[in-house]
Structure formats: structure tokens, C-alpha cells
């Protein structure tokens, strides 16, 4: 293992148009540095993971409707390749490697730093209206349909959770997490009227600063316990499949120590910004509408087999109800057992050619190894 966690500097340029992010910088560190410098930077939504690790896999995040996928924000990288040399790669230098790294990076080298786009903002422009609406389980079908029917603008994101209500009861609940850039309670309730009309029993929405946008996901993203997860990319939501998902989730969540298990559905705006760099990076599946994850969360290793059965069953249910011609799996959410075709899509053949060129001895082979 090569530990680059100490390469965690984040430096914003004087003109506030770019930033250099160290390969070991966590998302929380990047956001803190960006906020202090008065800029926004496209990042993922989990504070505890590597900023560049998330971006190189594709890079879903709150601001992607405005700024595009994370891979599209990368301008240049310093990469240590399999021959031990350090190279600067960009759209004009080592172009093939630059293309491959953005979507299949772990197969080609170690990124020690990257220059990314930054966006100068005022303090008011670094705020969002966000929070959770909690619904009773009998409203599930209405909530799923409302989420599917939403036409999100570039400034909006919606997550659907099945999760625990927290101690002491740990009752399973349906939660919709809302995010609206520069939103207010008034504009948020108008935009998401279809969800409010269903009748949430709890509403935690508020205006929050940039540094708090990811806070709700901190427990989900924490490095603790056993968390085998399974995922799928979906084009549509089937309410019957989601009721079956709920029933399976409730059954597993009842197991001793498994009360924090969860289901997550991420919905981002389907606008042209997402597809602007469609052929410029190896990251595929840009038009996948929903990203869904099932995570069994527990301590007791005796639950391992049941957790895998639970996760695989939910994944199969989702993929079977989607109706898509080809399965699509987001590499950053993958379990590790998915076929390479699901991960890399139509880019797999070219990636194999580049793998033979840049890493003929297959030194970088730890995550969805291209062979």
C-alpha cells in the first residue's frame, strides 16, 4: 500500500479560477480551503473520502448540474506511472493517459496532485437550502413517484433514503434529502411542492453554508463497522420494486446490530452540462438518471453471508425492474464483482489498449483491473 494522505495541501490560485489539490486531500479539506479562499470547487458528497479519488471515478456531487462531472473539472494532473516516472498529463500533454485516468485512474498510476477548475463566489453565493423530509412508510409509492417525476434544474439535487430514525427506536423511515443552490425556505417549498404535498412528518431543511452541505452524509461516509455495498445505475423507478426493496430492507435492518443499514437513491439534474465532456474522458454512463446503493451496516462478522445475500438480492431487483438494454455501474459505488463491461461501458476496448501501453506488467491492479 502507498499512503499519500499527507499530500493534502489545497492551494487556490490568486485569480480564483483554478486550484491545485494534493492526492491525499479529503473532500472536507478541499471544501474548507475553497471556502476560505472564496471559491466553489466541484467535489463529491462524502467528506471523508479522497477528493481526487472521487473525481477520477467520475465525480457526482451537489454542484455537478452547474459545473459538470468531477472528471470534467480536472485540467492537469501529476501522475506517477508504472515505470516509476512522474508525468504531467492534460488535454495537451499525454492526451491518451489524461483521457484514461479520468474514469479508470486506479489502473494507470498514482495522482500526486491535480489542477482543477475553481469558481469565485461571494459568501452569499456559497449557500444552499438543504435538509431532510421524513415520511411514514405508507407514503413510499407516492414519494418514489414524486422523485421520478421531478425535473431538477441545474441548481437542485434530491436523494431518497431508507434509513434508521436513530436511537433508541431505530425505526425504519423514508427520507428525502433536498439540496437547492442559493435556495430559501420559500423557493425550496415551491420547487419541491410535489413532495411537500405528500405530507412529511419531519422537515429539517434550512439555509446552510458551503462547509455544511455534506454534513448529513457524515455518518454514512464514516470509516467504521462492516459496510458491504451494492449498486446499480437506473433509468427509471418502479414503485412495486421499491416497495419490495423496502420490505427486504426492513427485514435485514431488524437483525441485531444491523439497524444502521440503509438504501440510497441519488438524483441529479439531467442537463447538458453533464454531457459536455462526454467523449473527452473514459468515464461512461453520463446519461444514467439514478444512482442507487444498498449498504448493509453492522459489526458482527457472522452476518457477512446474509449481508451479501441481502445486497445482491436488492441489486438484482433494481436491475430487473429497470428495463435498460445495458447495465451501468458507477465505479466509485461498485462492490467489486461487477463485469468490466458494466463499469467501463463502450470504452473498455480502448482502455485495454492503453493499459497494455502504460502498465504492461499490470502493477496497478487493485480496483476493477483492466485486463
UniProtKB/TrEMBL annotation:
<dbReference type="Pfam" id="PF01565">
    <property type="entry name" value="FAD_binding_4"/>
</dbReference>
<keyword id="KW-0560">Oxidoreductase</keyword>
<dbReference type="GO" id="GO:0016491">
    <property type="term" value="F:oxidoreductase activity"/>
</dbReference>
<dbReference type="InterPro" id="IPR016164">
    <property type="entry name" value="FAD-linked_Oxase-like_C"/>
</dbReference>
<keyword id="KW-0285">Flavoprotein</keyword>
<dbReference type="InterPro" id="IPR050416">
    <property type="entry name" value="FAD-linked_Oxidoreductase"/>
</dbReference>
<dbReference type="InterPro" id="IPR016169">
    <property type="entry name" value="FAD-bd_PCMH_sub2"/>
</dbReference>
<dbReference type="InterPro" id="IPR036318">
    <property type="entry name" value="FAD-bd_PCMH-like_sf"/>
</dbReference>
<dbReference type="GO" id="GO:0071949">
    <property type="term" value="F:FAD binding"/>
</dbReference>
<dbReference type="Pfam" id="PF08031">
    <property type="entry name" value="BBE"/>
</dbReference>
<dbReference type="InterPro" id="IPR012951">
    <property type="entry name" value="BBE"/>
</dbReference>
<protein>
    <recommendedName>
        <fullName>FAD-binding PCMH-type domain-containing protein</fullName>
    </recommendedName>
</protein>
<comment type="similarity">
    <text>Belongs to the oxygen-dependent FAD-linked oxidoreductase family.</text>
</comment>
<feature type="domain" description="FAD-binding PCMH-type">
    <location>
        <begin position="1"/>
        <end position="121"/>
    </location>
</feature>
<dbReference type="InterPro" id="IPR006094">
    <property type="entry name" value="Oxid_FAD_bind_N"/>
</dbReference>
<dbReference type="InterPro" id="IPR016166">
    <property type="entry name" value="FAD-bd_PCMH"/>
</dbReference>
<keyword id="KW-0274">FAD</keyword>
Amino acid at each position: 500500500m502507498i499512503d499519500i494522505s499527507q499530500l493534502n495541501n489545497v492551494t487556490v490560485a490568486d485569480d480564483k479560477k483554478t486550484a491545485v489539490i494534493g492526492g491525499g486531500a479529503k473532500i472536507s479539506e478541499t471544501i474548507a480551503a475553497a471556502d476560505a479562499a472564496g471559491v466553489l470547487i466541484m467535489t463529491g458528497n462524502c467528506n471523508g473520502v479522497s477528493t481526487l479519488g472521487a473525481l477520477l471515478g467520475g465525480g457526482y456531487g451537489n454542484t455537478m448540474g452547474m459545473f459538470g462531472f468531477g472528471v470534467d473539472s480536472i485540467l492537469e494532473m501529476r501522475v506517477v506511472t508504472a515505470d516509476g516516472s512522474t508525468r504531467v498529463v492534460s488535454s495537451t500533454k499525454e492526451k491518451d493517459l489524461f483521457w484514461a485516468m479520468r474514469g479508470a485512474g486506479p489502473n494507470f498510476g498514482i495522482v500526486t496532485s491535480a489542477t482543477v477548475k475553481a469558481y469565485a463566489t461571494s459568501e452569499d453565493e456559497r449557500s444552499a437550502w438543504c435538509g431532510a423530509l421524513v415520511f411514514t412508510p405508507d407514503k413510499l409509492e407516492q414519494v418514489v413517484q414524486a422523485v421520478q417525476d421531478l425535473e431538477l434544474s441545474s441548481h437542485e439535487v434530491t436523494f431518497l433514503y431508507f434509513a434508521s430514525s436513530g436511537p433508541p427506536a431505530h425505526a425504519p423511515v423514508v427520507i428525502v434529502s433536498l439540496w437547492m443552490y442559493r435556495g430559501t425556505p420559500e423557493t425550496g417549498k415551491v420547487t419541491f411542492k410535489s413532495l411537500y404535498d405528500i405530507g412529511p412528518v419531519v422537515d429539517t431543511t434550512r439555509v446552510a453554508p458551503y462547509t455544511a452541505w455534506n454534513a448529513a452524509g457524515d455518518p454514512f461516509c464514516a470509516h467504521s463497522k462492516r459496510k458491504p455495498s451494492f449498486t446499480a445505475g437506473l433509468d427509471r423507478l418502479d414503485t412495486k420494486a421499491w416497495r419490495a426493496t423496502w420490505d427486504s430492507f426492513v427485514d435485514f435492518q431488524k437483525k441485531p446490530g444491523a439497524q444502521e443499514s440503509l438504501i440510497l437513491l441519488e438524483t441529479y439534474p439531467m442537463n447538458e452540462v453533464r454531457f459536455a465532456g462526454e467523449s473527452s474522458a473514459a468515464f461512461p454512463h453520463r446519461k444514467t438518471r439514478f444512482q442507487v446503493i444498498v449498504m448493509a451496516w453492522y459489526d458482527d462478522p457472522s452476518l457477512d453471508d446474509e449481508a451479501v445475500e441481502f445486497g445482491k438480492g436488492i441489486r438484482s431487483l433494481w436491475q430487473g425492474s429497470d428495463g435498460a438494454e445495458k447495465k451501468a455501474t458507477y465505479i466509485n459505488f461498485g462492490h467489486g464483482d461487477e463485469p468490466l463491461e458494466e463499469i467501463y461501458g463502450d470504452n473498455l476496448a480502448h482502455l485495454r489498449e492503453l493499459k497494455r501501453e502504460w502498465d504492461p506488467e499490470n502493477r496497478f491492479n487493485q480496483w476493477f483491473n483492466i485486463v
